[in-house]
Amino acid sequence: MTGARTDWETRIGRRSDTTAAGEIPVLAPPSGLYAAPGVGQVSLHWDTVDGAVGYQVVRDGVPLDHLGGDVLAVPHGPYADTTGEPGVPYRYAVATVTDVDVTGPTGPEVVAASLPDGEATVDVLVDVSTAVRELPRPWRPMIGSEHLSLLLSDETVGGQSIAADLTSALRAAHDELGVSTVRAHAILCDDLGVYREVDGEPVHDFSGVDATYDALLELGLRPVVELSYMPRDLASDPDKTVFEYAAIVSPPKDWDRWAALITDLVQHLVDRYGLFEVRSSWSFEVWNEPNLEVFWSGTREEFWRLYDVTVTAVRAVDDQLVVGGPSTAAAGWVDGLLEHVASSGAPVDFVSTHTYGNAPLDLRATLARYGREDAEIWWTEWGVSPTHFGNANDGVFSAAFLARGMRSAAGRIHALSYWVVSDQFEELGRPPRLLHGGFGLRTVGELRKPRWWALWLLEQLGRDEVAATVTGDGADSLVEVWASRDGDDTDRVAIALWNGTLDQGLVDGSDALARTVRVMLDGLPPGPWVVRESRVDADHSNIAAVWSSLGAGADWPTEEQWAQLRAADRLAVTERPWTDDGLTVALPNPSIVLVELVRPA
Predict the structure, then answer these.
(1) pLDDT tens sequence across 109-147
(2) What is the pLDDT of residue 5?
(3) What is the pTM of this model?
(4) Radius of gyration, CA atoms only, the chain
(5) What is the pLDDT of residues 288-299, one digit of tens each?
(6) What is the largest CA-CA distance in the chain?
(7) Cα separation of 175 and 170, whole Å?
(8) Which residues lie below 8 Å from residue 22, measured CB to CB, with a gap of 6+?
(9) Rounded to an integer, what is the distance from CA 284 to the centroid of its chain?
(10) Beta partners for 471?
(11) Is the model's pLDDT at 15 over the cut of 70?
């Protein structure tokens, strides 16, 4: 899937939620719009609007396209436009978005042009003594994976074991990132043999599911059980398939048999793993991206029926099991699901949807419209690009993107699940080469991409988020800061800084957007302190650059090259003393740096 969102919608058949859209309010544009031009960018600021899920930035009368391939609206400001020509003035306006299909009118325009050159500095003042809140970690609740039957595979890709790679990546997500659950497709597909018909009668066999979930639980992880896709013998149209592994996307031919399969599966899981375990640590999500014709060949109304029948079948086992959906692409059908369950009475413990190439919209206003503030918000797929084999997937651009999205989500989203943990992934065929633009945080062969390091660095932030003020060229729009301390005794201060843009025309970076950041700390207890700086940029902690220098166009490394890559697969860390004059940090574009102040050993 490539290209701007409008072209992508046409190709894959995104179905808008027009029925619900008639009931969604259209809100006035935000007030207070102003532009802050800088070198290579124009930062736009505006006031928030009650009831908004996001904002559409418009330039010269056209929605500004940052080439993310998905929803263009952003959840909040400020927004850095890096797509323009330096020195050329543009007219900017902003509209309020109340649903992915409902955007209000634009407000008054401002005119601004980015600067071609000049001093580009950012000042950061961290108040170590002022705790804002316990630091939210939206990456911990969930991560995505290719279908989990790969944990049982005895095959290889590029000479590397599929099962060993995926097992290792999931173990690392749990042990190093604090991840607790995994969402994956296709637990009902025929490779696990859950359903067949013999002499016209259903036969259920959950032995393959058992082996899969046993392997997952051994890693300390729990499944988000995405109830998909349709077993062949139960499908109304078994020729409707998706992916290289031919997952069937049609409605069931017999709704009662589908319900019986779901209830039997859930009862089996409860019997095998225990009611308390499944009730407290597992969840059940209905289908995957039914608003795309490629993933659901039925109608919108048939999906509402699927939702009702499925969650009722789950809850027939226990009325406290966690259920939700609609698991849609591009933030679609959320209003539609809430409108539907308001009349059908079907339970919804969490609302789930997906987006790529942008920070997720703020769906709290949507839930509030339906009086469903009790439901959690889960973005069960999120990433830098919806495009497999995409040019943004392997480099440092996605590291800064990931940090930006997680900070944006902090405190307003329960789970922001990166799609996916490993390049052992076969939806469009198995990986053809080491770095192929795969979705994974980690490569085939278990090398860590820059975006793995970004998430790892965020996990190193302390217990308490502390106050930080950012000023200068691109402050809070291009350059962002997330500051923390370990606790009241302030034995360690950890500050994440990154420089990134949503503009995927700049996946290889921009010299014009490089910034020098000056960091000062208030409220720091008397020293001595040592500054430990962990860095990810084009020249540091970047396995793509290492492979580029070694590979000479090869698809896969030789044994010697594997050894060299593994030796180079390290986080770049330096140390220096802290002085009361503060700290100067170079932030090329793109990059992320973790600055830690620790007591000397």
Answers:
(1) 999 999 999 889 999 999 999 999 999 999 999 999 999
(2) 31
(3) 0.95
(4) 24
(5) 999 999 999 999
(6) 81
(7) 9
(8) none
(9) 19
(10) 123
(11) no
* Both structure tokens of 12: 């894959």
What single-letter DSSP state applies at residue 151? Answer: G
Higher pLDDT, 2 or 55: 55
Closest CA to 444 of 166, 185, 245: 166
Query: Minimal CA–CA distance to 248: which of 316, 325, 190?
Result: 190
What whole-number distance in Å separates Cα of residue 528 and Cα of residue 514?
Answer: 31
DSSP one-letter code for 302: H
**Closest to 299 (Cα-Cα) out of 287, 309, 291:** 291
3-state secondary structure of 580: coil
Compute the C-alpha angle 195/198/200, nearest 5°: 100
**C-alpha distances out from residue 464 to 39, 129, 378, 497, Å:** 33, 10, 23, 16
pLDDT in tens, 209-224: 999 999 999 999 999 9
Two structure tokens written together for 186: 């296709």
For the stretch 502-554, pLDDT in tens is 999 999 999 999 999 999 999 999 889 999 999 999 999 999 999 999 977 89
Mean pLDDT along residues 196-210: 98
Contact criterion met (CB below 8 Å) for 228 and 287: yes
Q: Which residues, other chains included, contact 289 with Cβ-Cβ below 8 Å and sequence gap of 6+?
A: 295, 296, 327, 328, 329, 354
Name residue 127's beta-bridge partners. 467, 522
CA 450 to CA 456: how far, in whole Å?
Answer: 10
Q: What pLDDT, on the 0 to 100 scale, is given for residue 6? A: 33
- 10 Å Cβ neighbour count for 330? 25
Joined together, the tokens standing for residue 560 give 């010697």
> Residue 199 gets which letter from DSSP?
T
* Residue of 16, 57, 30 lying closest to 358 (CA atoms): 57
Residue 71, both tokens: 């929803």
Output the 3-class SS for 505-520: HHCCCCHHHCEEEEEE
Cα gap 209→283, rounded to integer Å: 15
- Reading phi first (left if > 0) and then psi (alpha if -120 to 50, else beta), residue 475 is in beta
Residue 11: the pLDDT is: 31
Q: What does the alpha-carbon distance between residue 102 and residue 80 come to, in Å, rounded to a whole number?
A: 23
Structure tokens belonging to residue 549: 């220098």
| Angle of helix 300-315 versus helix 255-273 axis, rounded to 10 | 40
C-alpha angle with apex 319: 316 to 322, nearest 5 degrees? 105
According to the model, what pLDDT value does residue 1 have?
35
Edge-first strand order for the sheet with 79-81 is 34-38, 41-45, 79-81
DSSP string, 349-392: SEEEEEEESSPPP-THHHHHHTT-TTSEEEEEEEES-S-TT-TT
**What's the CA angle centered on 264, arms 145 and 229, to 5 degrees?**
35
**pLDDT for position 12:** 40
CA distance linking residue 476 with residue 133, whole number of Å: 19
